[in-house]
Amino acid sequence: MTTRDQHQHRGPHPSPDEGPHRSPNRGPDEGPDRSHHLPAGRTASGPYALDITPESAGWDRSSLRVLELAPGGVHTLVTGDSEWIVLPLSGACTVQTADADFELLGREGVFSSVTDFAYLPRDTRAQIASGAGGRFALAGAKCERRLPARYGPAPEVPVELRGAGNCSRQVNNFAAADTFVCDRLIAVEVLTPGGNWSSYPPHKHDEHHPGIESELEEIYYFEVEGGGLGYHRVSPSRADGTDVLAEVATGDAVLIPDGWHGPSIAPPGRTLYYLNVMAGPGEQREWLIRDHPDHRWIRDTWPDLPVDPRLPLYGPSPGPTPAPQDPEATR
């Protein structure tokens, strides 16, 4: 039985409809990705085009919602036992709580610029409003500490060029473990130029090994510039582990509770975007990965290769002068 013919079922039950952008040669029950690949619209709920909760994912902490607001639209978010980041995918918005007001300038789209964002603590009621309308990612994680609400300025988002040659990609580290303080949540954006591979070499973070590997649940949310399909692979790191080979399009998500994940492959001529949302049970909030032993050699080739000259696709964009952060959140 080939990899594409295998079917590992762990996680939420999918509907049989994959949408018009899927391969016509693949039936509703074929492929190993039926449990963890969520095509666009499958989890839509009310104002959310995407709604992934710990309960629906079958794990403990990580959440992701994509909120769509019409012009003049207003949405109330009750954070509950989770911390959240409001990240504009397209458009601008205001975020108001009882203690803080933020104006997010946003961006035209994920392929145009870095964006500013807002951090919302647990046990908070927030109102998100957009005069012109837009799409906003709500990245969340169940947490213990209640940190203060804060504004994340676009000019302060570290933009990293990772890899080399056709493994080159751009990482916007807006809420990486070492760039923005959260209790549990880790989130970054990755842009991969057409034809390149990212999330490569395949790596995992599903076990706790101090100083080597951290245990993290992860969500990938995808967009493809101009339409079309990319590909994403997750291979098992344990018996009966996660096994995914998915055609991914704008609005799709992949759940990764365990497994070697990568590559994410951008189609020629189309930039592939994904938003990574992670959280785990470890005492330290850290992103420590272990490369697949059969593929880690690829890193040794990078010093002899140039970074793809198409990168960076963009850098930090101008924005307002950031307000001082609460001392508790900057230690």
Helix content: under 10%
Query: Which series of helices and strands comes N to C?
Result: EEHEEEEEEEEEEEEEEEEEEEEH
Query: Total helix count?
Result: 2
Radius of gyration: 19 Å
Give me the secondary-structure category.
mainly beta
Strand content: 35-45%
Unreliable spans: 1-34, 318-331
Q: What's the rounded overall pLDDT mean? A: 88
Shape: globular
Distance N to C terminus: 52 Å
Biggest sheet features: 9 strands, antiparallel
Total strand count, please? 22
Question: Can you tell me about this structure?
Answer:
By secondary structure, this protein is mainly β. Strands 2, 3, 4, 5, 6, 7, 8, 9 and 10 form a 9-stranded antiparallel beta sheet that branches. Strands 1-19-16-21-13-12-11 form a 7-stranded antiparallel beta sheet, with no helix packed on it. It contains 2 helices and 22 strands.
In short:
The protein is mostly beta strands. The protein has two helices and 22 strands. A hairpin with a 6-residue loop joins strand 11 and strand 12.
